[in-house]
Amino acid sequence: MPMFGADIAALRGLAWSLRRKRQEIDESRRRLAAIVDSLPWTGVDHDRFVDEWRRVHGPALMAIVTELSQASSQATYHADRQEQASRRRA
């Protein structure tokens, strides 16, 4: 018999995996920021490096964190909608 709709368990598993990866990346971003902020280094190169971290790399990682969070929410939303639709068909 063909399956109609989404696999609810798979969607929930995907949402969980996305949340977990989001947390891992966010924690790495925080740890890296702390390392960058505490570098025992001075001078123009240091200033450029820290500036680039703060303008480019830190925000890029934060954007990934945000996107993963949104993707997780979307997967959960679709799992909930599929669950509701399945209850109505039963």
Give the structure's gist in a few sentences.
The protein has 90 residues and is mainly α. It has 2 helices and no strands. The model has no long low-confidence stretch (mean pLDDT 94).
Description:
The protein is an all-alpha fold and 90 residues long. It has helices spanning 8-37, 44-89. Helix content is 84%, strand content 0%. It has two helices and no strands. The relative contact order is 0.18. It is rod-shaped.
For the largest beta-sheet, the strand count, sense and barrel status come to: none
What percent of residues adopt helix (DSSP H or I)?
over 70%
| Distance linking N and C termini | 16 Å
The radius of gyration over CA amounts to 20 Å
Shape verdict = rod-shaped
The helix/strand series, from N terminus to C terminus, equals: HH
| Count of helix runs | 2
Structural class: mainly alpha
Q: What's the overall average pLDDT, rounded?
A: 94
How many individual β-strands?
Answer: 0
Spans of at least 5 consecutive residues with low confidence: none
How much β-strand is present in the residues?
Answer: under 5%
Task: List the keywords.
90 residues; mainly alpha; 2 helices
Sequence-ordered SSE layout with sheet pairings:
Layout: H1 8-37, H2 44-89
Helix pairs in contact: 1-2
